[in-house]
Amino acid sequence: MSSAPSWHSALAEIVGSESVAADDATLEACAAQGVKPACVCTPGDVAQAAAAIKFAAERKIPVVPRGGGTAQGIGHAPPPEALTISTRRLGGTESPAHHGLQHEPADMVATVPAGMALGALQEALGKNGQWLPLDGDAKATVGGLIATDHSGPRALGYGTLRDMVLGMTIVNGDGVARKCGGKVVKNVTGYAMEKLYIGSLGTLGLITEVTVRLRPLPIGRRVWRIDAANCRDCVAMIRAVAAKNLPLEALRGSTTLPSDGTAAWPVLVSAAGTVAELGRIERELGAAIAPAEAKSVELPEGRGEEQALGTPNLRFWCSSALLEPVLELICVAQGRLDFGMNSGAAAFPLSAEQAAKISATLVKLGANFRWENVQGLKIAEPFGPPRPEWALMRQIKAALDPQNIMNPGRFVV
Amino acid sequence: MPALSPTLLDALRKAVGADNVIADPDELLTYDCDGLTVHKALPGAVVFVHSTEEVQAAVRACSAAGHPFLARGAGTGLSGGTIAFDSAVVIELARMNRILEIAIADRYACVEAGALNLSLTKACTPSGYHFAADPSSQGSCTIGGNVAENAGGPHTLKYGVTANHLLGLDVVLPGGELVHFGGPPAGAPGYDLCGLFAGSEGTFGIATKIWVKLTPNPEAVKTQLAVFSSVDAATRTVSGIIAAGIIPAALEMMDQPLIRALEEWQHFGFPLDAGAVLIIELDGLRDGLEPLSDRVAAICREHGCLDLRTARDDAERVNLWKARKQVFGAIGRLSPSFYVQDGVIPRSKLPDLLATILAKAREYGLRAANVAHAGDGSLHPVILFDDREPHGSEKALACTSEIMLAVVAAGGMLSGEHGIGIEKLDFMTRVFSEDDLDAMRRVREVFDPRQLCNPGKAVPARRGGEPGVQPRLPFGVTQAHA
C-alpha cells in the first residue's frame, strides 16, 4: 500500500474528496512510461481544475495532465511524485453522455469538453452529418489529441489541428483559467494563443475545452490500393499520384498491410466525393500508375497509422526528395512504415545504438523527427538536438507556468 | 518619447546607407498613416532595407538607442498597425520583394517579406498553383503584412487564412537576433511559434523570410451571381448553403448601396433594383461541379432568389471579382466619408446581425452598406456619414461602436481580418478578461521585453499603463474623402 502524499488531504479540501485519489489501483492505471504519480485529481469543472493547479503551483508540485492515456509514450518520462490531473470528468468517461458538448451544425463548429473521446465526439457530430476530420484512436480525448498535435493520414485532405482549432479554455501553470481564440472561423483578435497550446504536451497548462471547425460527412468515400514491388516504385507511385493534384483525403505508402503475397509496399489512396467524382479519380489514378492497377479496398473507418503500425516509435518529416533515403534508412533497421510525401511513422524493435545512428542520419539529412514509445532505449534527445529557438520557448513556458509545474522536463522546454 | 536623436539617425545611416534613410518631415508625410487614415503620426525616420542583415542592423541601432521601431510593408493595413507613434523608426520592407524559391514538388514557396501577395500567385500560375490568402488588397499588399495581420480574403472560406498556409519564418527579434520558426519540413519540435506569430501585428519581431504553402488551382470553377430582393433573403441563403454542408470556394455578399455605387462607377452589369447579391464560387473536379451547382441553385430558389447568373467565361468571372475587390473604391461615390468596419460572427447569426446593423444606422440617422465574406461570418459594414456636418464623425463612431457590441453579443470577435491595431484596443476587454489579456502580454514580453517593437498595438496595455507605452487614441473613425 503506497502512502498518500502529505498534501493529499489539503488538496481534497480544496477540490472535494471525490476529486482526489491516491490508491494503488488508480496510481497504477495512471502510470506513464513506468512512472506512477503520487496522486490523481479528477476535477468536475474548470473551477476545480484551476483550484487544483493553483494548489500545485503554490507548493511546486509537478502536474501531469492526462486524457485518454493513449499517448503517454510521447516525450521524456513524466516527473516523479506528480499530481496527475485527469480530464475524465470534463466530458470524458465519467461524465454523462455528451455532457458539455455544444454542436452548432449551422455554424459547422463545436465546442467540446477536453475529456471527450474522439469516438464519442464523432458519433455525436455524425447525428447531424458532420465530423472532425481527424483520424485517431477512438479512446483518445480531444484535449489529448490537441496537446500532442496528433495528425493522421487524412491531414493531406483536411489539414492538421492547427487548421481546425478555433479557440480554447486552458488552465495555465499559475492556476488561472483563460480563454483564447473564439468560436468563429476567421479571427484576428489578439494573439493566437491557441496555436501555442497545440502540441505543447501539457507543458503550458491543462486544456479544459476547445472549439473546433467541422466538416460535412463525405457523401461517399473510396479507398484504393496500389501494389508496388519495392521502396523505389512505391515512392514513384506516390509522386505520380500526387502530381495529378486530385482532391484526395489521404495518400500513403506502407509496409504494413496484410498483403496477399504479391507486394510488400502497398500504396493506399483515399478520396471522398460523389459517385461521379470518385469515378473520375479512379480513372486518373489508373492513368497515373499504369501499367499497375488501383484496386478498391475496404478499410475500417478512422484507421490511422497507429492501428496499421501498432505503436509507432518514430515520426519523421522531410522534403519529398529525401523520402526515399529516409525510408531506406528505416528499412535497414527492419522498421515497418506508414508514410506520405513529406512525413511518416515507423515501428521497429531496435537498439539504442541503432536509434542513435538513425537520429544522427536524420539530423544530417535535415529531417525533423520525434522518437516515442521507446522508454527502454533511454534516448537522450527524443526531439533531436537542441535548437536556438528553444530558448524563447523556455521563456514562454516561464511566462505561463512561472513555477514550472506543468509536465516539467517532458518536452523541449 | 523624445524625437529621433541625431546619434540614432547616424547609426541608421551607417546600418543601411544614407541613401536608404529618410528623415525629412516632408518626405516622411507619405508614412504618417496606413489604411486607417484618420490617425496620423510622423515617423522619426523611414529606413529602406534590402536584406535580413540590414533589418538586423537597423533593429540593433534602434534597440541600442532604446527607440521604438516597427516594420511596414505596403501600408494597406486597416487597423492602424503601422502608425509610428513617438517618432518610431519605420523599417520599410517593400524592397525586400524577391521570390526566393518555388518548390512545386513540396508545394511551398519561400519569399522575402516585402514580396507582393499577387506576385507570388502570378509566379506560380504557370505551374498551376497559387497562394491561397487573397485579400482585396492583394495587388498591393505584401506577404509579410499578410503574416502580421493573418490576412484572409474571399477564398479563405474553403482554403483558410494566411496562418493555415504558413510553414516557416525567419524572424529578426526585437534585440536584433535572427531566429527560425517552423519548417519546412513540418514537424519542427517545440511550440508552434510560427502559428503564434501569424496575426501578432508586428509586435514579436520582424519576419524577413517566409515559407508558405502553395495551393493547386482547381480544375474547374463556376462563379455565379445570385440576385435577391433583400439582404435578409441573401443572408438566409448563405446560412442555408452552409447548413446543407456545402463549402463553396467563396460566398460573398454585397447590398444595394454598394451594388449601385459599383454600377455608377464602372458598369459591371449588376441589377440596380436588387436588395442584395451573392457571389457564389464553386470549384473542384469538373465531374462534381454541376450536381453541386444544382444543389446551390435549389437553395437559392428556396430563399426567393430573383435571378441566378453564371459567369460564361473567364473574362466574366474576372469582371465579377474585379467588382467585388474594388468595392471600397466605389464607396466614395456614396458619401463624403465612410467607415469600414470588420467583425466576425458565427455564420448562422448573419441574418440577425445584418438587420441589427441597418437598424443601428437608422437610429443614428446614418446610412449603412454591407459587404461580407458571408460564408465565413466575416462582415465589413460600411457606415456612411458626412464629416462636414456637425457631429458627423461622432455619430459614425458611436454607431460603429454599437455595431461592435452587437457583434460581441452575437458570440463574435472584434476582427476577422483587419486586426486590432490601435483601432480596437479599447474593445479587447469586451471579449477577453484581464487574465486572458495578461497571458498575451506576458508572451509579448518574452519577445520584446523593452516594448520597442511596434508598441501600443494589438493588445491593450495593463491597467495603470506600462513603462514606455503611452495610452493611445480611442477607437476612431476612418474617413475617406471622395
Report on the structure:
With 413 residues, chain A is of the alpha+beta class. Chain A contains 14 helices and 19 strands. In chain A, the strands form four sheets. Chain A has an eight-stranded antiparallel sheet. Chain A has a five-stranded antiparallel sheet with strand order 5-6-10-8-9. In chain A, a hairpin with a 4-residue loop joins β8 and β9. The longest helix of chain A is centred in the last third of the chain and has 15 residues, at 275-289. The two termini of chain A are 34 Å apart. Chain B is globular. In chain B, α13 (350-363) runs antiparallel to α14 (392-409). Chain B is 33% helix and 20% strand. Chain B has helices at residues 6-16, 25-28, 52-65, 117-124, 143-149, 156-159, 193-197, 231-243, 256-265, 286-302, 314-325, 327-331, 350-363, 392-409, 428-431, 434-447, and strands spanning 21-22, 45-48, 69-72, 89-92, 99-103, 108-112, 129-130, 166-172, 178-182, 206-213, 215-216, 220-228, 250-255, 276-284, 307-310, 337-340, 343-344, 367-373, 378-385. The chains are: A alpha+beta (413), B alpha+beta (482). Chains A and B meet through β9, α8, β11, α10 and β16 of A and β9, α7, α8, α10 and α16 of B.
